[in-house]
């Protein structure tokens, strides 16, 4: 009897799971991938467009390309998820499966901070990125604030990469801009610890970028970020990382825990519902030190492949053995044709074992290879 696997989300986790499942399952088994967007995009391309270095479109591929590999792609709005029945409603159509994977990522919520939508630009929203790029390129003098308005958020080093690259781009075009980067967290990327964060924060200081940790913004007014218990931050341009939340349809399905994120086993990615899994940014998985597992595409993809292995084993009548080992990495481009690498085992005991490497041109080349190889493997050489 043929089976059907339903995958919600066409990001790293969903696409990795779908392509791996297609390689593992018999041809008559269905793999259905659902997303409201019709494309996949490399997330770090947003920064490239904001600073005028490279267009987002170069890192975008049509999800329809997956159909050539035998994956059914449904574009539409998910209006309900029924985890008990492993079913989903998409624009009035119900799709049920023998297994369900929730990989819907995290949404940004600018309205969670009064005034943020009116006075800032959401740099994590692809639809807002062109506006950010135009505003930054047209600013010849003044102050630019790059603000993190809540944690956890996707791709922890990204705001600092943006600060460094935007500062470099401004200098090259002769603009006199003062950059400030702020976060509510006690240091830039807490999973790195004091030493690793020092490597990032020293880079910011060396570039003349004001870094303000432990800075909780309570509201945004015209030209000012109002801070709880600290000095307010003036700006001529506010590039914002708004608070992140699970999609409303996920919360409505009863999949979230006290953290507000989907509860999934750290190793198997199983939820409380039989044959329902969750991977990537939508999950809240604690590391050994109590901090949440970072929200990163590489980790989501690795989790997606583990889920694919487990689903294939179960549907084939075997005992699933694949587990997520916690290993991962991400790139931090610093300018000057170089990048650093955040890498390690995020699920190590008794604490995450994660390091920040020294910068090199090779790591930037590796970042570019990573993008090219992933896109070609999933969507075909283009």
Total beta strands: 23
Oligomer kind: single chain
Figure out the total of helices.
9
Strand order of the largest sheet: 5-2-1-9-20
How many domains make up the coordinates?
A: 2
> CATH homologous superfamily of the largest domain?
FAD/NAD(P)-binding domain
Per CATH, the class of the largest domain reads: Alpha Beta
* CATH-derived topology of the largest domain: FAD/NAD(P)-binding domain
Low-confidence stretches: none
The CATH level-2 architecture of the largest domain is identified as 3-Layer(bba) Sandwich
- Indicate the radius of gyration in whole angstroms: 21 Å
Domain FAD/NAD(P)-binding: 4-291
GO molecular function: oxidoreductase activity
InterPro entries: FAD/NAD-bd_sf, FAD/NAD-binding_dom, SQRD
Protein name: NAD(P)/FAD-dependent oxidoreductase
Note down, in words, how this protein is organized.
The protein contains 9 helices and 23 strands. By secondary structure, it is α/β, with parallel strands linked by helices. The chain has 2 domains: 4-106 and 246-325, FAD/NAD(P)-binding domain (3-Layer(bba) Sandwich), CATH 3.50.50.60; 109-244, FAD/NAD(P)-binding domain. The strands form 7 sheets. A 5-stranded parallel β-sheet has the order 5-2-1-9-20, covered by helices on one side. The chain has a 5-stranded parallel β-sheet with strand order 11-18-12-13-14. It is globular, with a radius of gyration of 21 Å. GO terms for molecular function: oxidoreductase activity.
């Amino acid at each position: 009897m043929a089976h059907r696997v339903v995958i919600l989300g066409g990001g790293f986790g969903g696409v990795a799971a779908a392509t791996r499942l297609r390689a593992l399952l018999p041809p008559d088994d269905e793999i259905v991938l659902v997303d409201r967007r019709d494309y996949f995009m490399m997330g770090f391309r947003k920064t490239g467009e904001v600073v005028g270095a490279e267009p987002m479109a170069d890192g975008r591929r049509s999800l329809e390309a997956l159909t050539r590999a035998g994956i059914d792609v449904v574009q539409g709005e998910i209006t309900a998820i029924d985890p008990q029945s492993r079913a989903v409603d998409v624009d009035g159509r119900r799709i049920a499966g023998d297994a369900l994977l929730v990989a819907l990522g995290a949404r940004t919520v600018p309205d969670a901070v009064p005034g943020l939508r009116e006075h800032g630009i959401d740099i994590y929203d692809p639809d807002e990125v062109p506006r950010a790029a135009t505003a930054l390129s047209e600013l010849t003098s003044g102050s630019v604030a790059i603000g993190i308005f809540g944690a956890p958020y996707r791709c922890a080093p990204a705001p600092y990469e943006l600060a460094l690259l935007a500062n470099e781009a401004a200098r090259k075009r002769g603009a006199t801009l003062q950059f400030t980067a702020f976060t509510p967290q006690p240091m830039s990327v807490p999973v790195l610890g004091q030493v690793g964060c020092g490597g990032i924060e020293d880079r910011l200081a060396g570039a003349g970028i004001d870094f303000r940790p432990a800075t909780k913004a309570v509201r945004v007014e015209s030209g000012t970020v109002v801070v709880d218990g600290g000095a307010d931050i003036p700006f001529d341009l506010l590039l914002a990382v708004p608070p992140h939340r699970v999609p409303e349809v996920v919360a409505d399905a009863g999949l979230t825990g006290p953290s507000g994120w989907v509860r999934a086993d750290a190793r198997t990615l199983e939820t409380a519902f039989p044959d329902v899994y969750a991977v990537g940014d939508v999950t809240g998985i604690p590391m050994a030190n109590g901090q949440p597992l970072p929200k990163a595409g590489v980790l989501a993809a690795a989790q997606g492949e583990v889920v694919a292995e487990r689903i294939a084993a179960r549907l084939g009548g075997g005992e699933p053995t694949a587990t997520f080992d916690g290993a991962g990495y991400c790139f931090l481009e610093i300018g000057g044709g170089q990048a650093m690498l955040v890498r390690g085992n995020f699920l190590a005991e008794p604490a995450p074992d994660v390091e920040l490497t020294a910068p090199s041109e090779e790591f930037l080349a590796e970042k570019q290879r990573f993008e090219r190889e992933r896109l070609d493997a999933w969507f075909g050489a283009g």
